[in-house]
Amino acid sequence: MQLQFSSLVIASVFFATQTAATPGHANKYQWIAPTATDLRGPCPGLNTLANHGYLPRDGRNVTVPGIMDAALGRFNLYFYSPAFNVNWDAILIAAKFGLLTGDDLLSGTQMTLAALSSHNIVEHDASISRNDFGDGSGDNVHFNETTFSTLANSNPGKDTYDTTSAGLVQKQRLADSVANNPLLVNTRKEFILRSRESGLYLSIFGDPATGIAPKKFVNIFFREERLPVAEGWTKSKSLITGDSLGIIEETIHNVSDWTATTSCEPLVLGPNGPIL
Ligand code: HEM
Ligand SMILES: *[C@@H]1O[C@H](CO)[C@@H](O)[C@H](O)[C@H]1NC(C)=O
Ligand SMILES: *[C@@H]1O[C@H](CO)[C@@H](O)[C@H](O)[C@H]1NC(C)=O
Ligand SMILES: *[C@@H]1O[C@H](CO)[C@@H](O)[C@H](O)[C@H]1NC(C)=O
Q1: Which residue's CA lies nearest to atom 2 of ligand 3?
Q2: Apex CA 175: angle with CA 169 and CA 178, to 5°?
Q3: Class for the domain spanning 23-256
Q4: CA of 27 to the centre of ligand 1 (A)
Q5: Where are the beta strands (DSSP E) in 165-262?
Q6: CA 20 to 30 Å from 43, out of 97, 142, 227, 261?
Q7: What's the pLDDT tens digit per position in 134-151?
Q8: Under 8 Å CB-to-CB from 82, ≥6 apart: which residues?
Q9: Which atom of ligand 1 is nearest to the CA of 94?
Q10: For residue range 9-24, what is the model confidence (pLDDT) as tens digits?
Q11: How far is ligand 4, taken at its centre, from the CA of residue 255, in Å?
Q12: How far apart are CA 240 and CA 226, in angstroms?
C-alpha cells in the first residue's frame, strides 16, 4: 500500500512536470532568425537545427555528438524533442570532416557553422542552393534563389519532388558548373556528398521509403531554414538511416548520370591548408 502510494505520487509529479514542460518545450525549439552575430554556414540542415535551438543558436561550439543528438531529437526527463529523425550513421563521416574546418586546439572537439564553408573539406561545387566557390560570384555560403531555381522548377506539374527529379537537378547543376566554373572539383567524393544531401531533403521532408517529398516543405526548408511545422510537416515516423538513404540514393545516382570531370580529389586538411 505504502509502495503503491509512493508510485502514484511519483507518477503524478512526473505527469505534472511533463505537462508543465510542454509550452516551455515548444518555446525552446521555436524558430528564431539568426542575429547579426550568430554564425551560419553553407549547410541548410545544420542552419535549420541552429535556428530552432537544437544546435547552439549562435552557431558556435558545435560538437560531433551535439550534431548527432540534434539531428535525431533529444530525449531527457522533461521532453522529447524530435528534429529530423536522422540517425547518426547517415551523417557521422560528414560531421567528423567538419572538425577539419578549424585549425586551433578547439577544433579537436568542436566547429562553427560558418567555418564549414572551407572549400573542398565538406563544402563542394555544384550545390543545389548555393553558388560555387570558384565561379566568380564569390559566395558559396548563402542561399541563392537563382541557383535554387533549378530545384524549384523541377518536377513540373507535380506538387512533390522525388528521386528522379533530384537526380535530374544534380545533373543540371553539375552541367552549369562544368560550363561556368573553371575551378570545378567533381570527383566521386562530391558525387557521394551531393547525393546524400538530396537523399536527406527528400527523406526528412517526405517519405524516407519512397523519397517523395512535398515541394512546399522542401522549399521552406531551403528558403527560410525553418521546419515547416506550421504548414503541416511532421518529422518522419521511421528512422532515417544510412541504409534507408542508400536505397533511394540509388535512383538519384542513376538518374544524375554522373561522371567525374576531375581525376583526383584535393585532400584539404585545414581551413588554411595544407592541401595535398
Ligand atoms: C541531418 C543533418 C543534415 C542535413 C539535413 C543536411 C542537409 C544538407 C543539404 C540539403 C545540403 C545541400 C545544400 C546545397 O547543395 O545547396 C547540405 C550541404 C552541406 N552540409 Fe549538410 N546536412 C546535414 C548534416 C551535415 C553535417 C553533419 C555536416 C558537417 C559537419 C554538414 C555540412 C554541410 C556542408 C559543408 C554543406 C555545403 C555543401 C555545398 O553545397 O557546398 N551537413 N546539407
Ligand atoms: C566556443 O566557441 C568560441 C568560438 O569558436 C570559442 O572562442 C570559445 O572558447 C568556445 N567555448 C567553449 C566553452 O568551448
Ligand atoms: C545569385 O546567383 C546568381 C547566378 O549565379 C548571381 O548572378 C547573383 O549575383 C547571385 N545573387 C546574390 C545575391 O549573390
Ligand atoms: C541503377 O543502375 C544499376 C546499374 O545499371 C542497376 O543495376 C540498378 O538496378 C539501378 N537501380 C535503380 C534503382 O534504378
Answers
A1: 146
A2: 145
A3: mainly alpha
A4: 26
A5: 213-214
A6: 261
A7: 888 879 999 999 999 999
A8: 72, 73, 235
A9: 29
A10: 444 444 433 333 344 5
A11: 9
A12: 19
